[in-house]
Structures are given as structure tokens and as C-alpha cells.
Amino acid sequence: MLRLGVNIDHVATLRQARYRGLDHGEPCPVEAVRQAEAAGAHGITAHLREDRRHILDRDIWAIRNAVQTRLNFEMANTPEMIDIALRLKPEAVCLVPENRAEVTTEGGLDVVGQANAIAGAAATLGQASIEVSLFIDPDPAQIEATAGTGSPFIELHTGAYAEAHSDEAKRASELERLAKSAELAKSLGIGVNAGHGLNYKNTRGIFAVPHLNELNIGHSIVSRAVTVGLGQAVREMLGLMDGYPPAG
Ligand code: PXP
After folding, report:
1. From residue 113, how far is each of 95, 118, 123, 124, 127 by CA, in Å?
2. 213-243 pLDDT tens trace
3. Percentage of the chain with pLDDT > 90?
4. CA 151 to CA 119: how far, in whole Å?
5. Ligand 1, residues 14, 72, 74: which to mutate, most atoms within 8 A of Cβ?
6. Closest CA to 162 of 104, 235, 245, 228
7. Residue 106: what pLDDT?
8. Residue 84: per-residue pLDDT
9. 93, 95, 99: which is closest to 70 by C-alpha?
């Protein structure tokens, strides 16, 4: 079974567009947690960014209290975020790179270049029984470096695949990169999640990638929720993910 983690960051993005600096506002990320879980989401993902541009500190604690499935806390590997994670006790942490200028997380982590720092974070979080995953590009060198950090999971960055949607040859080559990366991770005993840029048109194509455990999807689900409601948007995505892994 392929699990769905619903990323609710953009519920807070919409609230901040009107209520930045205030201690209230709509839409409410906690209500989004309730509706996504009621519709069958297997987990909730939220990213507390260093600049607090969408999810705020008060949100992440309220989300922690509301989540009944699993909380996947996305964060940069900084002392401040490690301290918050140890107190928050999410079921999982996904370490992501952070660049203040980016609109959303753009590239994967450089595990090769930051192996020691990442291994230290993975050990600290692992000792607190938090499952660690590293958000990386589908690059063999990054996957091999992940094995050395002791992180049990990767989240493969599907952004390049998503961006190639109108170019069939490029899309096929990105899918092949993802599939080979998943095979390599599996051979090294690393679990495989994936996400970024997945939507109602391209998610089914991800079935070509083996060994997937979970997809983390945010923008497309929150966008679809504007017209059909969050519960329906989650159910539609779960329907598209149904039948993974494909037979044969
Ligand atoms: N996974 C990670 C690590 C991310 O940073 C993001 C974006 O916040 C996502 C998944 C979800 O991407 P999208 O919002 O494009 O579905």
C-alpha cells in the first residue's frame, strides 16, 4: 500500500496572506488536519521554516496535539529546529535544505557535502525514536551518502519529474532516475518516500517507481480543496494512489 502524507503548509500560506502578524485567522491548519485524517490521509506533514512564512510555532504545537495518524515534521538541520523536534516528538522528521529566497523547497539536501552534520542529526533524532528521512534528489551519490548517515528513509525529490510533464522524453528519463534511485536505496536497506510537485495528473505516473512507502503531497491537494473541499481532494488523491504497486 502506498501511504499519503498530506502537507498542510499552504493552508497556513493562505491564512498568512491576510492575517500575518495576528494571533488568529483563517483557514485553520488544525481543521485541515482533522479533515485530511477523516478523509483517510495516513499522515500529516508540516514544515516550520526558519522565516516562519507559513506554519508558525503556535501552529506546529496545535498540529502536534491534533494529529491522530503520524506527524512528519519537515525542518532544516539547525540547532533551533533539532531542539523543537526533540520537544515536539513527531513520529518522523524530514530534513530539508532551506534557502530564504526560495518560494518552496527547491533542491534536495547535499548529503555528500554535509554527511557529518546530517549523521549527527540523524543520531540525535533516532535516539528520541523519531524516524528520519532525508529529502534528496534522485542521485546515486546522495543515496550512498545517506546510507553512511544512519538515516532509515529518503524522500526522493520528484520536482524534476513534475516539471517535465509536457516533455515525454524528459519525463521518462526522470522516472527512470527515480526508479533507479529507489532500487539503490532498497538495496542499501533504506526506505523510500517521495514528493514535491505531485498532482492529480502526474501522481499515477509515479507507479513506475518501485519500493515506495509514502508520497507527501501538499500544493495540489490544498489547491483542489478550494473547489471541492479538503476531504474530497484527499479522497481523490487516495483514489489515484490505489493499486500501488501495480501487478506484474
Ligand atoms: N516533500 C518535501 C520535502 C517538501 O518540501 C514539499 C514542499 O513543501 C513537499 C513534499 C510537497 O510538495 P508540494 O507542495 O509541491 O506537493
Report:
1. 14, 10, 18, 19, 23
2. 999 999 999 999 999 999 999 999 999 999 9
3. 95
4. 7
5. 74
6. 104
7. 66
8. 98
9. 93
Report in angstroms the alpha-carbon separations of 155 from 39, 89, 204, 212.
23, 20, 17, 10
**Residue 196 appears among annotated catalytic residues:** yes
Q: Which domains are assigned to the chain?
A: 3-241 (3.20.20.70)
Q: What lines the ligand 1 site, CB under 6 Å?
A: 7, 9, 47, 74, 94, 96, 104-105, 135, 155, 195-198, 216-220
Q: How much distance in Å is there from the Cα of 18 to the middle of ligand 1?
A: 23
Strands 43-47 and 3-7: parallel
Which numbered atom of ligand 1 lies nearest the CA of 9? 8
Q: What is the pLDDT of residues 94-142, one digit of tens each?
A: 999 987 566 555 689 999 999 999 999 999 999 999 999 999 999 999 9
74 part of the active site: yes
